[in-house]
Amino acid sequence: MERVGLGNYPTPFERMPRLEEELGGPKLFVKREDLTGVALGGNKVRQLDYILVEAKRRRADYVITTCGIQSNWSRQTVALAIKMGMKALLVLRTAQFKSKPKVYDGNILLDHIMGASIKVIKMRINEDPTDILEAEAEKLRRKGHNPLVLGPAASVSPLATASYADAMRETAEQADAAGVGLDGVVVAAGAGPTQGGLILGAKMLGLKTRVVGVNVGAYATESMKDVILKSAEGASRLFGSATTLSRNDIIIRDEFAGKDYGIPTRASIEAIRTVAQKEALILDPVYTSKTMVGLITMIKAGEFKKDENVCFVHTGGIPALFAYKRHFQPRHA
Ligand SMILES: Cc1ncc(COP(=O)(O)O)c(C=O)c1O
């Protein structure tokens, strides 16, 4: 499938021997999607690499997109837009933060440093800002620009799912080369297509791998399953494949999300420390830390057996950690 070609693939597939020893659990691997390259990487680089083909086709000179203040999607959109010679305009929603930021930090700071135009609006992450995006696009058109609008639907498009079906093939090849068959893959479920793509990819390859998503609290699980099914159906069509997903193929765990999307839990803060200290692997406060709590809890509950091989997908998001620094200060600070 056509892609812009801006990501660094294959991303590394590594062992986590110290974490494995600490948990006394299955053989643990990590797929380093935080290392997709381009402005500190993450899973959205892989998705946007497919989605932004449309910008090339339309000869767009601006990309307009939207998400939360600490949005990895937005940062990676700005980064890829720059690499494609375009400008970016972001409509960022306050989401889990109660007010507009007085000091820029984490992702929004990087958006600003990269020169994106930023408009912050008070809105939850699951509300629809389409009208505002369209109004911004119209303003740019009147100035003679040719903007491509990536609304909330873009991040759940079949292309986003297709990119992760390809990532599953990449991971399976790496596991093969390491002489292991993957019994389990554990990944964050934000809006769904990353997990959906991995499930579709595994099914297209005829693998028995259990792809478990950890709901990080942005959307209700059942509506996320609807999104995954629809996006995977489109992705399958793009591949010209007859493989389809059924609701039963989608395993999403709800119990690690905590109070809300973007609000860390005591366990997720602890998971960030544990994995940093055991593996020098830095997790993010919104997605991968809650996902790691899921993995650790499932291992402790015996859901993955000692002789199994399990891969944690690190989907990135590390810049947001700096916006959550108050959770990690030494006692004397
Ligand atoms: C770091 C990180 N991990 C995971 C996800 C979730 O991806 P998806 O929306 O495909 O479920 C996102 C995107 O929102 C993200 O930024």
Binned strand content = 15-25%
**Total count of strands:** 10
Tell me the number of structural domains. Answer: 2
Globular, elongated, flat, extended or rod-shaped: what is the shape? globular
What is the CA-atom radius of gyration, in angstroms? Answer: 19 Å
- In CATH, the architecture of the largest domain is 3-Layer(aba) Sandwich
Helix share, percent: 25-40%
Enumerate the spans where pLDDT stays under 50 for 5 or more consecutive residues: none
Give the SSE order as H and E letters.
Answer: EHEHHEHEHEHEHEHEHEHHE
Secondary structure tally, helices: 11
Bound molecules: pyridoxal-5'-phosphate
Strand order, sheet with most strands: 1-2-10-7-8-9
The structural class is alpha/beta
Q: According to CATH, what is the topology of the largest domain?
A: Rossmann fold
First-to-last CA distance: 51 Å
What does this structure look like?
This protein is globular. It folds into two domains: 13-43 and 156-328, Rossmann fold (3-Layer(aba) Sandwich); 44-155, 3-Layer(aba) Sandwich (Rossmann fold), CATH 3.40.50. It has helices spanning 17-23, 43-51, 53-57, 72-83, 106-113, 130-142, 158-177, 193-204, 221-239, 266-279, 288-300, and strands spanning 13-15, 27-32, 62-68, 87-93, 117-121, 147-150, 184-189, 210-215, 251-253, 309-314. α8 links the parallel β7 and β8 (210-215). The model has no long low-confidence stretch (mean pLDDT 96). By secondary structure, it is an alpha/beta fold. Pyridoxal-5'-phosphate is lined by residues 42-44, 72-73, 155, 188-195, 284, 287, 315-317. Pyridoxal-5'-phosphate binds next to α2, α4, β7 and α8.
